[in-house]
Amino acid sequence: xxxxxxxxxxxxxxxxxxxxxxxxxxxxxxxxxxxxxxxxxxxxxxxxxxxxxxxxxxxxxxxxxxxxxxxxxxxxxxxxxxxxxxxxxxxxxxxxxxxxxxxxxxxxxxxxxxxxxxxxxxxxxxxxxxxxxxxxxxxxxxxxxxxxxxxxxxxxxxxxxxxxxxxxxxxxxxxxxxxxxxxxxxxxxxxxxxxxxxxxxxxxxxxxxxxxxxxxxxxxxxxxxxxxxxxxxxxxxxxxxxxxxxxxxxxxxxxxxxxxxxxxxxxxxxxxxxxxxxxxxxxxxxxxxxxxxxxxxxxxxxxxxxxxxxxxxxxxxxxxxxxxxxxxxxxxxxxxxxxxxxxxxxxxxxxxxxxxxxxxxxxxxxxxxxxxxxxxxxxxxxxxxxxxxxxxxxxxxxxxxxxxxxxxxxxxxxxxxxxxxxxxxxxxxxxxxxxxxxxxxxxxxxxxxx
Length: 450
What we know:
The strands form two sheets. Strands 4-3-5-6 form a four-stranded mixed sheet. The protein is built from 21 helices and six strands. The protein is globular, with a radius of gyration of 22 Å. By secondary structure, it is α+β, with helices and mostly antiparallel strands.
């Protein structure tokens, strides 16, 4: 039951030399995907609005916004970049919890690096430990926490950001525990906000408030002794039957980031196998869209619980709508950012396809699997089963695919910069003395005056 102290002790004592090579590599892969996803979202309406509102409220403009020319203070920069990473459902996913580990942690670290200075090795170590903490805390409260309606990336991400910043501040065990305690006072985020701009707020807060939690702890801002496992601590509040042991068992031996996954499609992770199955069926010569009688989607109950949204009204809602996802896959034979836009949602042809969808729950299906069955008016049944979706644990995206994703999403976001130096810098980050230089490569170049 000594969860907070054990976790804090491990983080305080962990060194870069303790991280296996595969873990170091996965940290860089996660950061490549992070920059890709922020590029994709950097010009979206929620980011534009946040920058307009926060700009006049910002303190010293010490930290960059990925894909943009503006700078804000470190707290607001972390907030906006975390929002950008999660605007599209295109970020990384920890399969056991459905946490998106990088969005709350990386923005806090890069904002800190630009404001106070940080070596690349220090940033990577902080990132790994922050991701480890948030995912292990998530393991302890899954699946009940998410099913209850909490947005787990936000509620656990604030701990990840606090641990990451606490590590680069070189906080000792006591002060790290206070950082966790400070973070426990700032958890929040509701699944009800999915498909709306509001979802981005709690992800941004996770980065900003985690950063603040550690900075306060560094100035002896004290917290409860047992913020995680206490009688009214986060774990007991977060679910009915928390598993305290999984937070600390195997620390330093088993690393959660090694199971991190990356999405090939810009939608909720449980929709990836649906999209993949639908795209494959779109190539079947027997498929005639006007002759579809109905469509069955067979999958884990979580698929229906989170994506049964037959009346998506916006691109954001479409990102978590199985009806729209299968319609796009079958009707267009693809699933790109443009296919999850407001314009795509308004397409009457896609609406007609989505209206034919029915769900079949099957708890034997892993979360990264699904079957799409299409019953034709002729009585013929076309079906495709995806047991393990592309990008999932069994079929991870290659590093080359992640680099291409970054290049593609930089173009989508209108970033006026060659992404090649950024890609190289991420791969070489542990040997870079100034991690802030990476953010300089992630900024958009100013437009030339007319």
